[in-house]
Write a structure and sequence with these properties.
This protein has 334 residues and is of the alpha+beta class. It is built from seven helices and 17 strands. The longest helix is centred in the N-terminal third of the chain and has 23 residues, at 23-45.
């Protein structure tokens, strides 16, 4: 790998390579990355800035909002609304879609984001992040929520930025998964891994074990077998990790393998799961698949699901291919 390839150069090269991405998408991704840098700065200020604690408000999902949830949402909107590359945005923190105001030109893309993933980790100084997904607006005048309801296979770009010991941007435009590390002195993202690959097998799982008694039988079976280690049918010991920020858990899995699960459970049986399809599961699924992993809802490939509403939830099993295939098989056998 030649030295010091910036995100800008990577995107220019992606554009030149048989027009892998159009110039408007390149601009959009540059702006999203710039917004991530601003969010990273706010995160880094911690108690020295007015960014910690609750905002004393609820979002559309009935979750208490943290100050940083709202700050990150505003940063992303302000950064992206004027560029002329977007028609509308949608976010975990907004009930409806945000149509680009008339005073700015409208572009052909739709941007979705989880502005701040891992909110419960903000105040305890544990890794958090921003997740995003880009779609093309269907032909036709105006823009509506309906235009967003496309399966994950339609994504043209997806990624996340994790704010941890390092600030790292992980991106796919359908040509593998590229990783960029923020050089704080220079203020730019530098390519540090060009083709991330997830090992097909793994000995590490990530699930919130405190929900164990609420799980469905196939999930219980899979985890039970892992826990039996060398004494059980898997014949090997497993390790467990649960950060509680999907970005951080998925980042670890993209880096060294493993399986991340947030399954449906009996506490709220009418909900398909906790995580949101369009701005959490879909972008992460595409990254995982592009790195050679797999992602299902226990029965089907997540990216094949056609959403019926913006804030739709989904059961999630993603990561090392053989592990995801196994837990998915346990569902079909049940
Ligand atoms: P968000 O902060 O955007 O609401 O997402 C939190 C999600 C996800 O990041 C994480 O994997 C999961 O919730 C953690 O759930 P538990 O609190 O059940 O561990
Ligand atoms: Mn989230
Ligand atoms: Mn969030």
């Amino acid at each position: 790998m030649p030295k010091r390839i910036s995100l800008t150069r990577y995107l220019v090269e992606q554009q030149r390579m048989e027009g892998h991405i159009p110039s408007q998408l390149r601009l959009l991704l540059e702006v999203v990355a710039r917004a991530c840098k601003r969010i990273s700065q706010a995160v880094n200020k911690g108690a020295l800035g007015d960014v910690m604690g609750s905002a004393e408000s609820e979002n559309v999902q009935g979750e208490m909002q943290k100050k940083l949830d709202i700050i990150a949402n505003e940063v992303l909107i302000e950064a992206n609304e004027w560029g002329g590359h977007l028609a509308a945005m949608a976010s975990e923190e907004m009930e409806g879609i945000y149509v680009v105001p008339n005073r700015y030109p409208q572009g052909e893309y739709l941007l979705m984001f989880d502005p701040l993933d891992g909110s419960s980790n903000i105040d305890v100084n544990v890794s958090i992040g921003t997740i995003f997904s880009v779609l093309v607006k269907p032909e036709g005048a105006g823009v509506s929520e309906q235009d967003f309801l496309q399966p994950g296979t339609h994504q043209v770009a997806a990624g996340y930025c994790v704010f941890g010991p390092q600030t790292t941007l992980v991106l796919t435009v359908g040509d593998g998964v590229a990783v960029f590390t923020l050089d704080r002195e220079q203020g730019s993202f530098i390519l540090t891994d060009e083709h991330l690959r997830i090992p097909e097998d793994s000995k590490e799982f990530a699930i919130n074990m405190s929900n164990q008694r609420h799980w469905a039988a196939p999930v219980t079976r899979y985890i039970d077998e892992c826990l039996q280690g060398t004494d059980g049918p898997r014949g090997k010991d497993f390790n467990m990790r649960w950060v509680g920020s999907m970005v951080a858990d998925v980042h670890r899995i993209l880096t060294r393998g493993g399986v991340f699960m947030y399954p449906w459970d009996k506490r709220e049986p009418e909900k398909a799961g906790k995580l949101r399809l369009m701005y959490e599961a879909n972008p992460m699924s595409w990254l995982i698949e592009q790195a050679g992993g797999a992602s299902t809802n226990g029965k089907h490939r997540i990216m094949d699901i056609t959403p019926t509403k913006l804030h739709e939830r989904v059961s999630v099993f993603m990561g090392s291919k053989n592990e995801v295939e196994r837990v998915t098989r346990y569902h079909s056998e049940a």
